[in-house]
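Chain and backbone:
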Amino acid sequence: MDFVDFDEVVIEIEAQYARFKELVGTGPDYFEVHAVTSKKLTRAISFVAGEHHLKEQLLSFDPAGVVVCGSTEAHVACEDLLPPERYDPRGFVRRVVEGIFGSDTYVLIFHSGYLDDFILSHSSLTVNRIKDVDALIDPQLRQWLLQEQDDLCLVSYRNL
């Protein structure tokens, strides 16, 4: 059973979109939802994205699956939901990059960010956020990406 009320969630998404524009001064590069599984929520995200001419990132956690963001087909890769003792973000980046064939586009998902009391008391994704930050600012990983992967191109959602 889908617990989401379509009209109410559209109002909430519109409010979050307006607040984002107020804080950042522009709209987001894309819309997506991944923390809640709901057909009505997904439809509401699509509706609001369409109303504001925003790109939408539908997610698939199937490693072989392909999603479309903007006009680009992409594979989505995420491992930071693994238990902290098994999660290695540097190894994750290396495995994905080394496994890219041809001109495939991959979206690597990380949950890096500032940990505050709210996150620490409401989320199970804490230690891996710290691991993500450390990996994403690691000069050795950056050097590897620059030197070893000459055909690799970093893009943002604006490019898709």
Remarks:
- The two ends are 34 Å apart (CA to CA).
- The chain has six helices and five strands.
- The chain has a mean pLDDT of 87.
